[in-house]
Write a structure and sequence with these properties.
This protein has 673 residues and is mainly alpha-helical. Helix content is 64%, strand content 3%. It is built from 28 helices and 7 strands. A 3-stranded parallel beta sheet has the order 6-5-7, with helices on one face. A two-stranded antiparallel ribbon has the order 1-2. Helix 11 packs antiparallel against helix 12, helix 19 crosses helix 20 and helix 24 crosses helix 25. The chain is globular, with a radius of gyration of 29 Å. The termini are far apart.
């Protein structure tokens, strides 16, 4: 049947809610509400507004620690390429940007930047920079880029709160979740001021997509919001390669909802329209991004969204025939077998033709790393990156703190208590389980688990507070009504639920005591400790790495060796000088020293980086024979943790993956050094 025709149980529940007898002859009993007094509502709303402004203020303030301490400085490695690309876009315009071939990177190969970059962050930064003078605000492009993670961190907090509200149906859950997310280290680690990296914008785009998606499947005419979900997905595709996760997450949710409707012999037209709009708009937009092209229709990683879209169209055609011909469920079942059998046969035939032609691309090394042991991705370059290590229990505690142990309880409560928002609730459940699995495989993906942890912790905290308020303002006759409800004739499931409700009302003092204990514990320890740890982590993650503050001879000293070295290269070498260094430093050499590099963090050419590894780990004479053909200068960083000496085993391992003489007979270079 089409969605909207209430089944018998729903009709019975409706009759029970109104009082009297339902169609089965059961006596319906009204259960009084918790009865919170009218004067209490203004207090609740005042507290909500206070915490909303607190969350937005702290989301901004905590992300500016680096700017307050070090000024508007671009951080680390990748952000320097992003800033250099933004500067080129601002100077030359969009058309030339997309045609930009960078001869100063990956010498002697070069790099077609315009077709190998996700330009969303650069386009947004330049648009903001150009718009600010219209509002009487003058900022340099460098300052705009430094503040981008801060601004988008605040926007992400807003959409996280909206997503939490939509998935739970509770304003309190939305407010509390936004407060947690505003300072949770799992998000701050990619959104500190100066950390001008794609994730700082992409996580905001991801939360926008998720919110608009779950809002579009609420029901009725909400499907039109699928347009906004598709546009948000397009912006996500512009901004980060992680758009693949987002579109697959939405597709997974749509598939789960579709299966539940099929099992209930229903068809949800809202879901069909919303997903169709989302997929068509988002996919079309993604194909216009040069670095993506037709990948959404060719990559094995993105086949799920396509299959879900096609399956929904088949189901919609069958539903149309059911309505036109007034078919029974048995007839519909036969049609489904016939249609899907035909489509499956056609799909197998198409794949049999396209696979040998190389139409479908293989899974990337990073994606393979999510399903195999870390050291077996087949790409030692991927394996050498610390962020690609599996996440440990310590990592979850470090980046989520109290939100981590709260999340499982919040997940259970969300699943049990918020069935009135079933569609959105199922999305959050699916999202939480999926990101937990992926983050256990790759520590970098703890970033994606942060929003889920904040929402689930918000569900638990809100439930504990509500428990106390419900007990405090409970009607005197609520327990008696619950007990009376237990005595009427019911199904076994309803009888069990009624008895639990009766027990719940009778234990008012216990609920009130537990809630008061939680409030006192939260105010005295949990909340202050979470706030303290989050700020401590924010301070640590705000270190730009290109500038350090270290204790030397008992005094804290600002160490600016990196920038001074790059400025020396800029001022004391020819403009066309080529500088060979390990790929980590390529972006900084090009961005700060303005000199040609051999390789950088784009890591698109494994063999080229392997040659660097061979040159830097071979005996001096052998290394020189390679270097003299590539570069005029060699830059080696020594001293402190994480210098080139510490990285040399990774260099050797990557080198020997192509040049077997680097570590003869030892593919893992376990004996190197």
């Amino acid at each position: 049947m089409a969605k909207g025709s209430p089944p018998k149980k729903k009709a019975a529940a409706t009759a029970a809610a109104k009082g009297g007898k339902d169609a089965g002859g059961w006596e319906a009993v009204d259960i009084p509400s918790t009865g919170r007094p009218i004067w209490f509502n203004p207090i609740v709303w005042a507290l909500r507004l206070y915490f909303v402004q607190w969350a937005l203020r702290e989301a901004y303030h905590i992300r500016t620690y680096a700017i307050q301490e070090y000024g508007t400085v671009i951080h680390e490695f990748d952000p320097w390429f992003n800033f250099r690309a933004t500067q080129y876009l601002a100077d030359n315009g969009v058309e030339r940007f997309y045609k930009w071939f960078d001869y100063m990177s990956w010498y002697p190969l070069g790099r077609p930047v315009g077709t190998t970059i996700y330009p969303g962050m650069q386009l947004t930064s330049v648009a903001i920079w150009n718009a600010l003078p219209s509002f009487g605000v003058e900022m340099s492009l460098n300052d705009v880029c430094c503040y981008m993670p801060v601004w988008f961190g605040v926007i992400a907090t807003v959409f996280l709160g909206l997503l939490a509200y939509e998935c739970s149906g509770s304003i309190d859950v939305g407010v509390i979740s936004a407060g947690i997310f505003s300072i949770i280290p799992a998000h701050i680690m990619r959104s500190v001021g100066g950390g001008y990296d794609n994730e700082s914008v992409a996580i905001t785009a991801m939360l926008m997509t998720f919110y608009f998606w779950v809002r579009s499947v609420r029901g009725g005419n909400s499907w039109i919001i699928g347009v906004l979900a598709g546009l948000a997905e397009y912006y996500m595709a512009l901004s980060w390669g992680g758009y693949v996760f987002v579109v697959n997450m939405v597709a997974l949710h749509a598939a789960v909802l579709s299966l539940t409707y099929v099992m209930r012999k229903e068809f949800d037209l809202t879901l069909h329209k919303a997903y169709s709009l989302f997929y068509v708009i988002g996919t079309y937009g993604a194909t216009t991004v040069p670095v993506i092209g037709m990948t959404p229709l060719k990559s094995l990683e993105q086949m799920l969204p396509l299959l879900v879209f096609l399956a929904m169209q088949v189901v919609a055609v069958i539903e149309y025939q059911r309505r036109e011909k007034n078919l029974t469920f048995e007839d519909v079942h036969k049609l489904r077998i016939q249609y899907f059998g035909t489509c499956a046969a056609a799909g197998v035939a198409v794949c049999a033709v396209l696979f040998p032609m190389g139409y479908f691309g293989p899974l990337s090394s990073r994606v393979r790393g999510l399903f195999v042991a870390h050291t077996r991705t087949g790409n030692p370059l991927v394996d050498s990156v610390a962020e690609h290590q599996p996440a440990s229990p310590k990592a979850y505690w470090t980046y989520m703190h109290y939100a981590c142990p709260m999340a499982p309880f919040g997940l259970a409560l969300l699943f049990m208590k918020h069935k009135s928002h079933r569609n959105a609730m199922m999305f959050m459940v699916s999202y939480a389980v999926t990101v937990y699995y992926f983050s256990t495989k790759m520590q970098r993906l703890v970033l994606l688990a942060g929003p889920a942890a904040a929402v689930l912790a918000g569900v638990l905290i809100s439930a504990l507070f509500s428990m106390g308020l419900d007990a405090l303002f409970q009607h005197e006759d609520a327990a008696a009504a619950a007990e009376k409800a237990c005595r009427r004739r019911m199904s076994p499931q309803e009888e069990s639920e009624a008895r639990m409700r009766d027990l719940w009302y009778k234990n008012r003092l216990i609920r009130l005591a537990l809630s008061i204990a939680f409030v006192i514990g939260s105010g005295a320890y949990l909340a202050p400790e979470f706030n303290r740890v989050s700020r401590q982590m924010a301070g640590w993650m705000s270190n730009p790495r290109i500038i350090k503050t270290e204790q030397i001879n008992g005094q804290w000293t600002r160490v600016d060796d990196y920038r001074e070295a790059y400025y020396w290269l800029r001022d004391n070498t020819p403009k066309d000088a080529r500088v060979l260094a390990w790929w980590d430093y390529g972006y900084q050499i090009a961005g700060l020293a303005n000199r040609t590099t051999i390789a950088d963090g784009n890591t698109w050419n494994h063999e080229h980086i392997a040659l660097l590894g061979k040159a830097l780990t071979s005996p001096q004479k052998d290394g020189h024979r390679i270097v003299r053909h590539l570069a005029d200068y060699v830059l080696v960083w020594a001293g402190g943790r994480g210098d080139d000496m510490a990285k040399s085993p990774h260099m050797a391992r990557i080198g020997t993956s192509v040049y077997k003489d680097v570590c003869p007979g030892d593919p893992s270079c376990s004996q190197f050094g």
